[in-house]
Design a protein that fits this description.
The complex is a heterodimer of chains A (536) and B (243).
Chain A (H helix, E strand, L loop, with lengths): L2 H14 L5 E6 L2 H5 L2 H12 L6 E6 L11 E5 L8 E3 L7 H6 L10 E2 L4 H4 L17 H6 L4 H9 L2 H11 L11 H10 L6 E6 L8 H8 L1 H15 L3 E7 L3 H16 L15 E7 L8 H8 L23 E5 H5 L1 H7 L1 H5 L9 E8 L5 E6 L4 H8 L9 E6 L5 E4 L9 H6 L8 E6 L4 H15 L5 H18 L5 H17 L3 H5 L2 H16 L5
Parallel strand pairs in A: 1-2, 6-7, 6-9, 7-8, 10-14
Antiparallel strand pairs in A: 1-3, 3-4, 4-5, 10-11, 12-13, 12-14
Helix pairs in contact in A: 7-11, 7-15, 8-9, 8-11, 10-11, 10-12, 19-20, 19-23, 20-21, 21-23
Chain B lengths: L11 E6 L2 E6 L4 H7 L23 E4 L6 E2 L10 E3 L3 H17 L14 H9 L15 E2 L5 E4 L8 H10 L4 E4 L6 E4 L16 H5 L5 E3 L13 H11 L1
Parallel strand pairs in B: 1-5
Antiparallel strand pairs in B: 1-2, 3-4, 3-5, 6-7, 7-10, 8-9
Helix pairs in contact in B: 2-3
The chains are: A alpha/beta (536), B alpha+beta (243).
The structure holds flavin mononucleotide, iron/sulfur cluster (SF4) (3 copies) and FE2/S2 (inorganic) cluster.
The site of FE2/S2 (inorganic) cluster (FES) has 12 residues of chain B, from loops.
């Protein structure tokens, strides 16, 4: 198959719905489903009936503003999210009004203006199809240009060409560490081996983070396409998606996508009539945070206890069953198709000097618009929180934003103007992490925040190495006594020393970063710790 | 003319450890090179003859030009490495790690059969731990005396998994494993059944001999008798490898 054939196929698929002029899109991602999207869709389908063949009800993925769900949008067939009319907090009872308004002015009482910064200020690459296409429809994905990047790679590019584009793009891993993706791919590509593997890390265990889940639920083919391009570039013929079992909807959509891609010849043997073959298999994780760590994840796939092992050797050299293995995050793979399609230089023109492209963030906590956003790297924190996020509700003052989950830290108000990228966040003692942002107002206690994250690390520690296993427990004990105003100054000093030891000596990233929330809150809110001392 | 010498596939590298110039095979780990040259490196989970576990973190060393510490047991030597094994910082970290181990379970040496023959106790002496600054956790775990010859006391276990590895890698029985998370991890026999009911245990006693503490002991022994004997391990390990 070449690109022209694929374009013909896309045209065929578009022709199936040629009579449809307008779409009523109902968000069927997990968040909106949990607030009742399914009855809304059913009511819309029943209400519309056959009366308007030019209008079709369609289940789609995440539109972003999860706090206002269920969300419904009315758009021209090819309309984007900003060009559509969006309704918020829709119930099944509203279906009649929505249908009645299709030929006239919109239903004002449900309306969620799309010219507000939440929609207008975003730039969507990873989420370009989210909220627009039906994630269960293979034809829908192909109709919007899906799989053209894979076919281009297979038919017009050598693996080295693909590696060059990915390297030129400057893409860095979205799973937390920010390791250059092109470099990782080239390393695995260079390894001489008869067998290589690709793994998509969809374990996503950070509290407050749901970017990867939303991507999988909204556009699963996009992730598969990225994985297939990666496999071609590095010379692998077998891939795994490791996804936690707590994400049943994501798993189901992924399964459907893999099945349909395979049936249509985009996975399996001789993809696109080339010599390239790829099997993709799903592996379910039982939901242990440490299984997101790459060596623990691979142990889990091998059927062993999910525990990290010392690196080196890195997976690129010795991964699954000892073979070279490429492991990337969901969002990293979701960036690949646009990079191949538009070119590495295009991607590199977005973002900052050392952090290219866009980043998906999950806004949570005390912020007006909670949900999913995608903005160029380098957008200021103030823009994200005050403009796109709509600021703090209830007239309260902003206190801090926690980024990077249990591995990250808190950023106080005086640093709100920082441009968000991997390196700037590190200078503030926190990190990008996978993209969770928890906003806190003046009423939250920073000692409580530190205690919360320490409790998370303590209970999620795999128990293998001593400093993490028992150090987090002792730190949690001190934080707990601090929170109850029972700790002494000597214990506070011990807490600081334990932070240093656990950070410096733990075996894997979990323990090495577990002290970060404590250290960063101490750095900016030391007075709160002092005020809590029992012997002050 | 002699036949051309066959070049073995391993290179030799030179490095410095604590200022001493040393040579080593490139497939050796830092701890192996240190042991050959009588440079002391504290360790609890490492045992010659078993696979490397890398969990006690006592063997950490400093490498010039790198901020991150390296575990001597799981790091191969490379050309030109400059290693420090006993800096003030490392000593302080090791002391804290040993303290953490003591506080995690109930180590009261005066009432323990391994008193005087315990690697954890020795380590505490070597690292200068004279008191424990963190509170003892006081979790009381059960004692399993169901085996006719041996006894398991979780309150003395440091989760080094030497028993797990020797049973799997040398004896080939895989009776032992670990269950749980964090400090609630426990070593178990078979599917967490009493040891005495284990179908797989051959009663060979290897786990008891390699256990560094009083967690695994022979039933009915006195403090003076409970001396562990690990000399069999490297010999058996080499034989296994040769097979
Ligand atoms: C404790 C721990 C948990 C992690 N969890 C995840 C995760 O849920 N998803 C993920 O992609 N990466 C996670 N990582 C990072 C991965 O180990 C790995 O670096 C990443 O998947 C590489 O992909 P990338 O280069 O695309 O970022 C975690 C790391 C640690 C130490
Ligand atoms: S740092 Fe924590 S999670 Fe990582 S290996 Fe050690 S105990 Fe396990
Ligand atoms: S196992 Fe060792 S350190 Fe623990 S109580 Fe017994 S002698 Fe003391
Ligand atoms: S029982 Fe002994 S050998 Fe086994 S893990 Fe515990 S301390 Fe180590
Ligand atoms: S001996 Fe190296 S970590 Fe235990």
């Amino acid at each position: 198959m070449n690109l022209d054939d694929l374009a013909d196929l896309a045209e065929q698929y578009r022709a199936i719905d040629a009579n449809v002029e307008r779409e009523v899109r109902v968000c069927m991602a997990a968040s909106c489903q949990s607030s009742g999207a399914a009855p809304v869709r059913d009511a819309l389908v029943a209400g519309l009936g056959e009366s308007q063949p030019s209008c079709k009800v369609k289940g789609v993925g995440c539109m972003g503003l999860c706090s206002a769900g269920p969300l419904v949008s009315i758009a021209d067939r090819d309309g984007s999210l900003e060009e559509s009319t969006i309704y918020r907090d829709v119930t099944a009872d509203d279906a009649a009004d929505i249908i009645a308004s299709l030929d006239g002015p919109p239903v004002e009482r449900l309306r969620c203006p799309t010219d507000q910064p939440f929609f207008a200020r975003q730039q969507k690459i990873v989420l370009e199809n989210a909220g627009i296409i039906d994630p269960d429809s293979f034809k829908g994905y192909v109709a919007v240009g899906g799989y053209s990047a894979l076919i281009r790679a297979l038919s017009e590019m050598t693996p080295a060409d693909v590696l060059r584009e990915v390297t030129d793009s400057g893409l860095r891993g979205r799973g937390g560490g920010g390791y250059p993706t092109g470099l990782k791919w080239s390393t695995v590509a260079k390894m001489p081996a008869t067998q290589k593997y690709v793994i998509c890390n969809a374990d996503e265990g950070d509290p407050g983070a749901f970017m990867d889940r939303a991507i999988l639920e909204s556009d699963p083919h996009r992730v598969i396409e990225g994985m297939a391009i990666a496999a071609y570039a590095i010379g692998a013929n077998k891939a795994y998606v490791y996804v936690r079992a707590e994400y049943p909807l994501a798993v189901e959509r992924l399964q459907t996508a893999i099945r349909k891609a395979k049936r249509s010849g985009f996975l399996g043997n001789k993809i696109g009539d080339t010599q390239f073959s790829l099997e993709v298999e799903i592996r379910l994780g039982a939901g242990a945070f440490v299984c997101g760590e790459e060596t623990a994840l691979m142990a889990s796939i091998e059927g062993l206890r999910g525990q990290p092992r010392p690196r080196p050797p890195y997976p690129a050299e010795s991964g699954l069953w000892g073979y070279p293995t490429l492991i990337n995050n969901v969002e990293t793979f979701a960036n690949i198709a646009p990079i191949v399609r538009e070119g590495g230089d295009w991607f590199a023109s977005i973002g900052t000097e050392r952090s290219k492209g866009t980043k998906v963030f999950a806004l949570a906590g005390t912020i007006t618009n909670t949900g999913l956003i995608e903005v160029p790297m380098g957008t200021s924190l103030r823009d994200i929180i005050e403009v796109i996020g709509g600021g703090i509700p209830g007239g309260k003052a902003f206190k801090a934003v926690q980024t990077g989950g249990p591995s990250g830290g808190c950023i106080p108000a005086q640093h709100l103007d920082i441009a968000v990228d991997y390196d700037s966040l590190k200078t503030l003692g926190t990190m990008m992490g996978s993209g969770g942002m928890i906003v806190m107002d003046e009423t939250s206690s920073m000692v409580d925040v530190a205690r919360y994250f320490m409790e998370f690390c303590m209970t999620e520690s795999c128990g293998k190495c001593v400093p993490c296993r028992t150090g987090t427990q002792q730190m949690h004990g001190i934080l707990d006594r601090l929170a109850k105003s029972q700790a002494t100054r000597a214990e506070l000093a011990l807490l600081e020393e334990l932070c240093e030891v656990v950070q410096a000596t733990s075996l894997c990233g979990l323990g090495q970063t577990a002290p970060n929330p404590v250290l960063s809150t101490m750095r900016y809110f030391r007075d709160e710790y002092e005020a809590k001392l029992g012997d002050a | 003319m002699p036949p051309p010498a066959k070049q073995p596939n391993v290179r030799v590298v030179t490095l410095t450890i604590d200022g001493r110039d040393l040579s080593a095979r490139a497939d050796e780990t830092i701890i192996e090179v240190c042991r050959e040259n009588q440079i002391p490196i504290p360790s609890l989970c490492y045992l010659e003859g078993l696979s490397v576990w890398g969990a006690c973190r006592l063997c950490l060393v400093e490498l010039a030009g790198q901020g991150r510490l390296l575990a001597a047991c799981s790091t191969r030597v490379t050309e030109g490495m400059q290693i420090q094994t006993n800096t003030e910082k490392l000593q302080r970290y090791r002391r804290t790690i040993v303290e953490l181990l003591f506080a995690e379970r109930n180590h009261v040496c005066s009432v323990c059969v391994s008193n005087g023959h315990c690697e954890l106790q020795h380590m505490a002496q070597k690292c200068g731990v004279d008191h424990v600054r963190v509170p003892y956790r006081q979790a009381s775990y059960p004692v399993d005396s169901s085996h006719e010859m041996f006894r398991l006391d979780h309150d003395r276990c440091i989760l080094c998994t030497r028993c797990v590895r020797v049973c799997d890698e040398i004896e080939g029985a895989h009776t032992w494993d670990v269950m749980g998370r964090g400090s609630d991890c426990r070593v178990i026999t078979d599917m967490a059944q009493p040891w005495g009911e284990s179908d797989t245990c051959t009663s060979c006693g290897k786990c008891v001999q390699v256990c560094p503490t009083g967690a695994l002991v022979k039933q009915g022994t006195s403090v003076g008798e409970m001396v562990k004997d690990q000399h069999f391990l490297p010999i058996l390990a080499r034989r296994r490898l040769a097979q």
